[in-house]
C-alpha cells in the first residue's frame, strides 16, 4: 500500500466518522469537533489526491477543507458537540 493510499484512507475514515456521529446525533454539524474532523479529513484527501496527481479531487477537497476551516473559526467558543 502506497503512502497516498494510507493518507486517503485516514481522510475518508475521518470524514465518515464525522458524518455518522452527526447522523446519529452524537455531534452537531455546527460543533467544533465536526468542523475539525471535516477539515482534517478533507485536507488529508486533498493531499493524497495531489500525490497521485488527480486534480479534480484536489480542487474538490481543497474547497471542502476551506469551508470546513472557515466554519471551524465561526463556531462559538464552548460548542463541544451536542
SSE run: HHH
Return Rg in Å: 13 Å
Helix coverage percent of residues? over 70%
Q: Which segments are poorly predicted (pLDDT under 50) over 5 or more consecutive residues?
A: none
**Total DSSP helices:** 3
Mean pLDDT: 93
Q: Count the beta strands.
A: 0
**Given the C-alpha coordinates, what overall shape results?**
globular
For the biggest sheet, the summary is: none
Distance between the termini: 37 Å
Question: What does this protein structure show overall?
Answer:
The structure is a single chain. This protein has 82 residues and is mainly α. Helices cover 74% and strands 0% of the residues. The chain has helices spanning 3-23, 32-51, 55-74. It is globular and about 40 Å long. The model has no long low-confidence stretch (mean pLDDT 93).
Labels describing this entry:
mainly alpha, globular, 82 residues, 74% helix
Write a concise synopsis of the structure shown.
This protein has 82 residues and is mainly α. It has three helices and no strands.
Chart the SSEs and their pairings.
Elements: H1 3-23, H2 32-51, H3 55-74
Amino acid at each position: 500500500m502506497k503512502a497516498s493510499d494510507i493518507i486517503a484512507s485516514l481522510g475518508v475514515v475521518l470524514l465518515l466518522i464525522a458524518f455518522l456521529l452527526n447522523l446519529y446525533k452524537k455531534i452537531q454539524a455546527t460543533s467544533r469537533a465536526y468542523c475539525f474532523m471535516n477539515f482534517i479529513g478533507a485536507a488529508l484527501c486533498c493531499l493524497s489526491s495531489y500525490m497521485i496527481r488527480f486534480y479534480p479531487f484536489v480542487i474538490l477537497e481543497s474547497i471542502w477543507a476551506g469551508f470546513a476551516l472557515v466554519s471551524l473559526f465561526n463556531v462559538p467558543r464552548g460548542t463541544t458537540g451536542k
